[in-house]
Amino acid sequence: MWIDTKNSGKNGLPDTLLNPSALQNIAKGESMKAFKVTGTFRNRPGMQAFSKEVAAKDKDAAVEVVMSVLGSKHRAKRTEVKVESVVEIKKDDVTDPIVIHRISK
User: Fold this and answer.
1) Considering just the CA atoms, what is the radius of gyration of the chain in Å?
2) What is the pTM of this model?
3) What domain range is 83 assigned to?
4) DSSP string for 2-15
């Protein structure tokens, strides 16, 4: 699935991320869930597969986290990223220690 940034809120972000009350709820300790996002992105030699565990409020927020990470670490533009699946995973199946910490609050 390609992420459609034209039908999103301001600046191409989903409306859930632009809602200040949603950010306040997260700051107040709203429970986070663990997601595994898999897909591919365009890299210099060709397409590079990725699989990333993230802590987020919902699937849209999980995709935003992955887009941000790929953009900052690999300079991949949103149009160069193809997200194939976003799956919620159980706390026991999480392997990333940072994600474990964030979902255990």
Assistant:
1) 14
2) 0.70
3) 10-103
4) ---STTSSGGG--H
